[in-house]
Amino acid sequence: MILSRAFSIFFRFGEFVCAAVVLGIVAYFINQYDEFGVGPLGREIYAIVIASLSVLFSLIWMIPTTASMMHYPIDLLFSAAWFAAFGVLVNWINRVNCGGIFHWGGITRRGSYCGQWKAAEAFSFISAIFWLASFLLGVVVYHKLRRDPVATDGS
């Protein structure tokens, strides 16, 4: 049980970090949209809502209790939401001149629109994987707890 709690904390921390990174990048893009009117506002709003909820729930569920692993259906929903966020971000990159989805050249240039957008894509995908791993861990722990016999006083 101690190993599952350690993995749970690791996954929740990963979810938090990825969501915070996406939240920061997309908040910057929304600010740019507010100033210049350029960008896919609907996609950005979706990504920022998912990132905000993920930051909140991952922080709450980072507290190491067995109950924090019993939210595995919600972990699956968050994973699907993050895969959808990844999809809408990838779909937008096809419409601008940033190269292919997996063309990572120039990503390290400071202030690069394409680099920042691709970083948001990458962290949204990684976040989806962390949420999926939390879901799988929750399923394993839930079924293990259901199988373990309960000690009674014999009456």
From TrEMBL:
Ranges that cross the membrane: 9-30, 45-64, 76-94, 122-142
Keyword Magnesium (UniProt): no
Domain of life: Eukaryota
Keywords associated with the record: Membrane, Transmembrane, Transmembrane helix
Subcellular location: Membrane
Record's bilayer topology term: Multi-pass membrane protein
Keyword presence, Membrane: yes
InterPro entries according to UniProt: Marvel
Gene Ontology CC annotation, any one: membrane
Record domain MARVEL: where: 8-137
Protein name, UniProt field: Integral membrane protein
